Amino acid sequence: MKTQNPSDSVLARRRILQGLATVTAASALTACGLNERTNSQNQVNPIDRAREAGALNTLVAAEYVTVDAYTQGAVILTAARDDTSRPQEERDLAALALALATQFQEDHTAHAALLSETVSRLGATPVRADEVSFTPPPNFRPSVGNVLKLAANEERRSAMTFNRVLKGIQTPDSRFILASIEGVDTQHFMVLKALIEALVDVTPALDAAQVVPQPFVASTVSLGGGNGLEEQPDLAVNDQG
Amino acid sequence: MTEELSRRAALRSATAVASLGLATGLLTRGTPAQALTTQADLTPLKALLTAERNAIKTYDAAVSVLDAATSTDPLFPFQGIVKAIALHFRQQHTEHADKLARYIDRQGGVDDVGEGTAQVPTDFVPGIKNVIDLATNAEKAAAIGYTNTQKSLVLADNAELAAAIGAVESQHFVVLNLAARGFVTPPASTVNQPADALTAVASQFVPRAFAITVDGAPGLDDETDLPFYDVTQ
Fold it and tell me: One Pfam family of this protein, by short name (chain A) (predicted)?
């Protein structure tokens, strides 16, 4: 991963995460009160709209940071995959990790796009991808395993952040979007955890594009997003064995 | 201010705006026009509770099928781990149901949805693979259902709970889907092992019943970070 001095960063990852912590803490405070919402987006008052846009914009930034993290991780994984001095087993693991990282990055790109559009709908200016970047933790050691572990940690953190921010959001559609993204982040986390901890053996049939098959849990197409698990046909339960 | 400067300002102030807005929100709550009765959420919460009770009964039926499997089943060597995971997921659904019932009670509702019913299609053929497929379908529907419920919930606490549970159903789905599609198999160490010997292994799949800690029940925030400085693995 590229090295970056946090002091040089326009908006370092750490700052984003600190911001999210503030947002979520404030969200929790709000939730202690009578935190009901109105029934339609149009009825949310201007103060709440601004508040919501701010919270969602922070999530846009967080998604772009994650996209950049996967870009940087892909450099390490590609190098490992193409390193002919490594044992084939390690190169195969790197190839698998790279394929998954690429797919998960696509999901996060889709999340950022929908959140960005939602921020615009609320009348605010969304953060751009080129305004944020990922800064690896100072003690991070580049390796295939460590890229996977770092990704798992970030996916877990992301899911929790979405859940906390969701609680402070007033607009039903926005809550729905956040929940639909959160569920995919937890899928990413679980898949990465299973690989890291060798909870499963991977078979040659694995198709990285189908591991987390959709970018959203429920379809967000009507809100400008992407497909949900509704696109996955039910599996037949009458196989004769 | 140029557009770029505007975006940068928005970015830099996103946290501040959000914090201020969230805090300001405290002052805007509770007006008569906005004060919606907590009763509004009882219908969707009861629907979720019904789905959880149905899921528990469905897993009961699935475990019975697994117990009846014989060595002629192609997946018989995995009977133990599949059953252990089914019991683990069933337990998490029980925790979901208990939490939903508690929320309903707190909001003045009554848990009157009954014990639930196993949701087994009429064309279901008993077998380990079909059990995995059945559970995959059910967890997918549950994940979608919880997410869609966000559109109808009113209270923030209820929205938080629904998200925290829905994200767990989503994890159930992805684990089962990996196995159902043949993308992964359980590790060799679990082959031909009885379920009760694999409880600890099964609990590593979807380690928490909630995505975040809610109402005292631990979530993924209770998990520790994986050490990314470890160069031995």
Answer: Ferritin_2
